[in-house]
Each structure stands twice: as structure tokens, then as C-alpha cells.
Design brief:
five-stranded antiparallel sheet; Beta-Lactamase; five-stranded mixed sheet; 13 helices; alpha+beta; Heat Shock Protein 90; 18 strands; Helix Hairpins; elongated; about 425 residues
């Protein structure tokens, strides 16, 4: 009995000791919070990039919440250059690795700010994450400021996309100015020539013909700039409608009928008829017309241009479980496109052969318009080409539902000479491997 009493007394004393310890810890925690203390980052036992031991570093109250809503990458460094806090974007950009700042210029700025307390802001180029040497570096804006007496805040904003857009805008303005200057200058010179040759009817007629050519070229350039400005944002269409593919092909053929006839080029269309696209009719007509016009312009005389249409599943192209796409291929027997040029042909004002483009009246905007029209319709455009053998451009766009009044009728495909395709020469093949 005495043993039981002694055991109970020992347990009571132990419980009292645990309770007193918990109460002391609780009061100490309340006192720390009253002093303005904040949760501490567990860095004990580590060393910073300077080799000094890293102690627990307090983060001022509210800083964690503010950093979580900043658009810039945020990094908080302690007094031993250890990373106290870093946003997920900082890790994704490769600015922080292994709990330390991975970019030496940023670390030097942080140390200088810690010494004198001055806010610093610079623009730097940092390697892209992944270690690819050939990859273009990231352009960033870095702002470093003291955060209390021991911490340094580093804010990093990625300027790479902004720089790219600015470069594109500068190039576009420069190219537009250059392209507009050529026909405007030609018209000015030709008008002076007409005035000087007012007593020579033949010369006046010749110069007037040249003026018409330059005026047409100028009007075409202005129209393509307008078309490009409408589609270059790749935004979703506001009011899409069912657009019959057969009518788009007929318009494209009619648009190129005269230059094709001058070079004795046969434009033949075939494939599945009665198909519909879901989109903007004007944009789709411009895209297909540009493809057919390019095929005619870059084809030698007495050759053929083929337009083929078919319905395909979107699963094989876009990876979607269901849905249908309409594939429109334009194949020519032209000069072809080299591998290095195929990577850039959809850029604004890029020409495979500038001298030939000027001879054919090309502006260098047609394929760029095609690319943006495909993107705004949530489709794709691809090219297959071999130098000396020709090219195939393939548009794949979402299928549309035919209007109820037109579902039982079909518009026959036509050729450039107005014949039914069933009696026209067999068009050039556009095999799947080409696209």
C-alpha cells in the first residue's frame, strides 16, 4: 500500500513539472509575439554562401503575405546571404538553387545594399533554367532594397517577352516604312515622267501603266497590313459562323485566275466537297487566297497547283478526344523552300527570295496572315517543301455545321478554267507525309 502511495505521489510530481514547463513555454511565446516577433524560418545547422553559419532569421509580420501577391519574383536574403524566403517563380527561373542565390550579380547587389542601405535597380541578362548554352538569356529588371536591419529584399521582373514584343514592333514599323517608301517613290518619279512626256502619247501610256502597277502594289500592301492588324493578337473570334469551304476555294481560284492564265498554270481542286469551317469568312478567304496566290507566284509556267480538302479527326492532330478538323492543302510545283527558310517563312516581311518577291509583287505579309488566322481559329498551318520539287501548305481548322437549308445541297468544286473537277486533270497529290 505504501508502494502505491509513493508511486502516485511520484506521478503527481512529474505531472506538475510537465504542466509548469508547458506554462512557461506558453508565456514565453506570448511575450515574443507581444514584442513583434514573427514565425522563424528553420535554418539552424546550415551555412550561407559566405561560409558563415546560418541562424534562425525572423521574417517581419505581413511580409510573407505581401510577397505572395507580388507579380515579380521575390527573394528575401538573410545576413549570411541565405535565402529566407523565395517565391515559386524564383525557383522556376533558376534564380535560387539549394537554398542560395544562384545569380552572382544579384548577390553582389544584395551585399552592397546590406552594407549601405541604399535601394538599387539594374537590368541584367541571366541564363535560362536548364543550362542550355544556345538558349537566349532572360532579360530581367532587378530591384534590391533593405528589409529591416538584417534582411534584403530582391524583386526580379522578367522583361524577356516585353523586349521581344518591342523588337517585333520596331522591325514591323521599319519594314512597313521601307515597303511603303518603294511604291510611293515610284509613283512620284512616274508622275514626273508623265509630266515631262506630255507631248509623247506612247510614253504617257507606258508610264501610266507603270503607275497603275505601283498603285495596285501599294493598295495590296495597305490591305495586308490592315488584315494583319486584325488577326495578329490571335484572339478568339467574336461571332464565328459556318463558312462553306467550296466557296472559299472558288474565291481563291478566281482571285488568281488572271496571273495563273498568264503563266499557263492550271489550278485544280478536289477532295471532299460540301465541307464547312467554323470561323470568320473574311479571314479564312484571305488566308486561303494568300496560299493559292503564293503557289501561283512561285511556280514556273505550264505547271499545276492543286487544292485538296478532307475531313480528319482532331485526336491525331491536337490530341483532343473528339471533334473534327477540316484539312485544306495547297500544293505547287514551284522552286521549293530550303530547310533554314522554312523556320522563318511565317515571319512578317520575310521573303525566301527578295528579288523574286519584288518581281511578283509579294509583300512578305501573306504567310504571316495565314499563321495568325489559323491561330485565331484554334487551328494550325504546316509546310512541307523540297527545293526544286515544290511545296505543300496545309491548313487544319475546326469543322463547322452546315446551315439547315444547305445540308442537303453541295457546291461542286471547280478548276481555274471553270470545268467540273471530275473531268479536269488529276490534281497533284498532297500526301499526309508532306504536312
Amino acid at each position: 500500500m505504501d508502494v502505491n502511495v509513493a508511486t502516485a505521489a511520484a506521478c503527481a510530481i512529474a505531472g506538475l513539472g510537465v504542466g509548469l514547463t508547458a506554462a512557461i513555454a506558453f508565456r514565453w511565446s506570448e511575450r515574443e509575439q507581444a514584442r513583434g516577433g514573427a514565425p522563424r524560418i528553420g535554418n539552424a545547422g546550415r551555412t550561407g554562401s559566405s561560409g558563415l553559419p546560418v541562424h534562425d532569421t525572423p521574417l517581419p509580420p505581413g511580409v510573407d503575405t505581401v510577397l505572395s501577391v507580388l507579380r515579380s519574383c521575390a527573394i528575401v536574403l538573410g545576413d549570411a546571404d541565405e535565402v529566407v524566403k523565395a517565391s515559386s517563380a524564383a525557383y522556376a527561373m533558376g534564380l535560387v538553387r539549394g537554398g542560395a542565390m544562384a545569380v552572382d550579380p544579384m548577390l553582389s547587389l544584395a551585399r552592397a545594399t546590406r552594407r549601405d542601405g541604399e535601394i538599387r535597380q539594374v537590368e541584367l541578362e541571366v541564363p535560362r533554367p536548364g543550362g542550355a548554352r544556345a538558349a537566349e538569356p532572360l532579360a530581367v529588371s532587378v530591384r534590391v532594397a533593405p528589409l529591416g536591419s538584417r534582411l534584403v529584399l530582391v524583386l526580379v521582373e522578367d522583361l524577356t517577352e516585353r523586349r521581344r514584343i518591342e523588337a517585333i514592333r520596331r522591325d514591323f514599323v521599319a519594314n512597313v516604312s521601307h515597303e511603303l517608301k518603294t511604291p510611293v517613290g515610284a509613283l512620284s518619279l512616274l508622275s514626273e515622267a508623265v509630266a515631262d512626256a506630255s507631248d509623247d502619247p506612247e510614253a504617257v501610256q507606258r508610264f501610266a501603266g507603270r503607275m497603275q502597277i505601283e498603285a495596285t502594289r501599294l493598295a495590296s500592301l495597305v490591305q495586308e497590313i490592315i488584315d494583319l492588324s486584325r488577326v495578329q493578337d490571335d484572339e478568339r473570334l467574336v461571332d464565328p459562323e459556318p463558312v462553306p469551304v467550296d466557296e472559299l476555294i472558288a474565291e481563291a481560284i478566281d482571285r488568281c485566275r488572271q496571273p495563273a492564265a498568264a503563266k499557263q498554270i492550271l489550278i485544280a481542286s478536289g477532295g471532299t466537297s460540301g465541307l464547312y469551317l467554323h470561323g470568320n469568312r473574311g479571314q479564312l478567304a484571305a488566308a486561303l487566297g494568300n496560299l493559292v496566290e503564293n503557289a501561283v507566284n512561285y511556280s514556273p509556267p505550264r505547271t499545276r497547283v492543286a487544292i485538296a480538302t478532307r475531313r480528319i479527326s482532331s485526336a491525331a492532330v491536337l490530341g483532343e478526344a473528339d471533334g473534327e478538323l477540316i484539312e485544306v492543302s495547297v500544293t505547287d510545283q514551284g522552286i521549293g523552300i530550303s530547310e533554314k527558310d522554312r523556320e522563318r517563312i511565317f515571319e512578317r516581311f520575310y521573303r525566301v527570295d527578295p528579288a523574286r518577291s519584288r518581281a511578283t509583287g509579294g509583300t512578305g505579309l501573306g504567310l504571316s496572315i495565314v499563321k495568325h488566322v489559323a491561330a485565331s481559329h484554334r487551328g494550325t498551318v504546316a509546310v512541307w517543301s523540297v527545293e526544286g520539287q515544290g511545296s505543300t501548305f496545309t491548313l487544319r481548322l475546326p469543322s463547322g455545321q452546315a446551315p439547315a437549308a444547305d445540308r442537303d445541297t453541295a457546291v461542286p468544286s471547280t478548276t481555274a478554267d471553270g470545268h467540273d473537277p471530275r473531268t479536269a486533270p488529276t490534281p497533284l497529290p498532297a500526301p499526309e507525309a508532306r504536312s
